[in-house]
Specification:
This protein has 12 helices and 10 strands. By secondary structure, it is an alpha/beta fold. Bound molecules: adenosine-5'-triphosphate (ATP) and magnesium ion.
């Protein structure tokens, strides 16, 4: 944008200077016509006066074309959202038998790109399942399919024994608290962002949850405390702070299934410790599906599933995978090496 502005501003300045100076053209040409008697003096004066008034509206009309293209862009974006096909789901809530989640031969493609190639995984109620694997292997996509962001391409996902395609989206949303990788905050106060997890929560409840999520202290340090506006997409907060507010929002919701898609970038040791502490409280006694980039945080999980190229290579406990899964061994070696290097350098970003 800046480059384009710089390259065109000379011409536009020139035009905006010369163009409104209509008298430069009107006066000499008018004089010429007057002298050879094709224009009378009163007409000449009228034209000179009128010409002064014509440029304002013309310039305004040209700026209006700018507004039209802005409107076209915005309506285009809104139309794109509205024209997405609805999930074809019933509205009648179903009775579930427990909250076990199971994926059977699940395939999925974003438009033409096949992303998941037959995922089969069982997630028992009340346990922790970690998804690990290289970037782009499909971990977040699995999480989004469980949360019914899209329907599966092939295969089935069942929750409590019922096919997710037979559950109304509202029921799935009530069951699942989802802290996504690109946790999004709305341009409202911190308080309203947390309350979004449960709109009828009182201020005292919001603050209690913020304390549990280790947010209270930094929020009190903000200019207007809980009433500080977080900026577009939470831009006035740091990445780690945004993540903690997103966790507080999920805690507020208190859903029995929690999906946590960890972002990698906010991993200074101090933030890491408070984050883990907050996550521990959020997920106590719940079914937790965590997408972990720092393997040391999930070694205690009941089940770790190694995802690669849209397939599950292996699933088991940390110990079992270290013995038999080459990719997990590699990832673990890379992780511990990075951690050791860091400790030698006095504890930097990677824990
Ligand atoms: N909305 C989308 N539209 C098109 N392609 C997508 C979309 N989201 C993800 N993809 C593609 O699907 C593949 C899997 O993405 P996914 O986000 O599930 O990976 P991931 O395992 O979560 O990676 P990371 O560890 O980097 O978060 C990638 O190749 C990605 O480019
Ligand atoms: Mg991801």
């Amino acid at each position: 944008m800046l480059d384009w502005m710089k390259s065109t501003q000379g011409y536009s300045a020139l035009m905006m200077t010369i163009w409104p100076a209509v008298l430069i053209g009107v006066l000499p040409v008018g004089c010429l016509f007057y002298m050879n008697s094709s224009l009378s003096a009163p007409d000449f004066i009228t034209i000179a006066i009128l010409s002064l008034g014509i440029m304002g509206p013309l310039v305004a009309a040209i700026f209006l074309t700018d507004d039209f293209s802005k409107i076209a862009t915005i309506t285009g974006e809104i139309t794109a959202v509205l024209s997405e096909p609805d999930l074809d789901r019933p509205s009648q809530r179903k009775n579930l038998k427990g909250l076990d989640i199971s994926l059977r031969d699940v395939t999925f493609a974003y438009k033409d790109t096949q992303v998941l190639n037959g995922i089969t995984l069982d997630i028992k109620q009340g346990t922790t399942t970690a998804l690990v694997g290289p970037s782009g292997s499909g971990k977040s996509t699995i999480a989004k399919l469980i949360a019914s962001y899209w329907d599966v391409g092939g295969g089935h996902i069942t929750i409590g024994g019922v096919d997710a395609k037979g559950l109304p989206p509202e029921q799935v949303m009530d069951l699942i608290g989802y802290v996504s990788q690109d946790n999004f905050l709305f341009n409202l106060s911190v308080r309203e962002n947390i309350r979004m997890g449960r709109p009828d929560a009182t201020d005292t409840e919001v603050e209690a949850v913020a304390k549990a999520a280790n947010c209270h202290e930094f929020i009190m340090g903000l200019e207007h405390g809980y009433d500080t506006i977080v900026g577009g997409a939470g831009g006035h907060l740091s990445g780690g702070e945004r993540q903690r507010v997103a966790i507080a929002r999920a805690m507020m919701k208190n859903a029995p299934i929690v999906i946590l898609d960890e972002a990698t970038s906010y991993t200074d040791p101090e933030n890491e410790a408070v984050l883990q502490d907050a996550i521990g409280r959020l997920t106590h006694g719940k079914t937790l599906i965590v997408i972990a980039h720092r393997l040391s945080t999930i070694t205690g999980a009941e089940q770790i599933a190694v995802v690669d190229h849209g397939k599950i290579l292996d699933a088991g406990t940390h110990g079992a995978l270290l013995e038999r899964c080459p990719l997990y061994q590699q990832m673990w070696a890379a992780h511990t090496q990075a951690r050791d290097n860091d400790q030698m350098e006095g504890g930097a970003a990677y824990v």
